[in-house]
Amino acid sequence: GLLTRLQTSAPTIRTLSSSNSFSQNIPSSLWKLGRLNHVAIAVPDLEKAQSLYKDVLGAQVSETVALPEHGVYTVFVELGNTKLELLHPLGERSPIASFLQKNKTGGMHHICIEVDDIKAAMTELKKKKIRILSEEPKIGAHGKPVIFLHPKDCHGVLVELEQA
């Protein structure tokens, strides 16, 4: 009856054996990728964006911090498992100003992932033909060394790596 038809038509489910483990396909490295530190969002109106996250959504929002060496004002929104970084231009040569010229209402600018050894990551990524947008790490918003990877080498996403 029905039970026999269900048993014979059920798809076969295959499981991965330990010999086919995904981790065995990943080459050993001198550095490791860590957790998502933040997602950065360029905003044309910083006060309005702060108000959305603090007053409307109820998030804990940091004070505004100017980072002249990066040409931005930053505000961090705490989310428990990660953060949002709100970016607003500081000066005419700000990379965020040019981003906002193309994206008038703002939008996602980059993601930031922690690494345990930024120098080793740089060396290995250069060997793998991933372009790094600076010769040396710069000090980022958290007071730690950061680098940015070219979005064309990262499937259209600007990726920031931060020393954990």
From TrEMBL:
This protein's UniProt keywords: Cobalt, Isomerase, Metal-binding
Superkingdom of this protein's organism: Eukaryota
GO MF term list: metal ion binding; methylmalonyl-CoA epimerase activity
Gene3D superfamilies for this protein: 2,3-Dihydroxybiphenyl 1,2-Dioxygenase, domain 1
Catalytic activity: (R)-methylmalonyl-CoA = (S)-methylmalonyl-CoA
SUPFAM superfamilies in the record: Glyoxalase/Bleomycin resistance protein/Dihydroxybiphenyl dioxygenase (SSF54593)
Pfam families registered for this protein in UniProt: Glyoxalase_4
GO terms of biological process kind: L-methylmalonyl-CoA metabolic process
Family of the protein in this entry: Belongs to the methylmalonyl-CoA epimerase family.
Main function: Methylmalonyl-CoA epimerase involved in propionyl-CoA metabolism.
NCBIfam families the record matches: metmalonyl_epim (TIGR03081)
The protein's name: Methylmalonyl-CoA epimerase, mitochondrial
Gene that this sequence comes from: Mcee
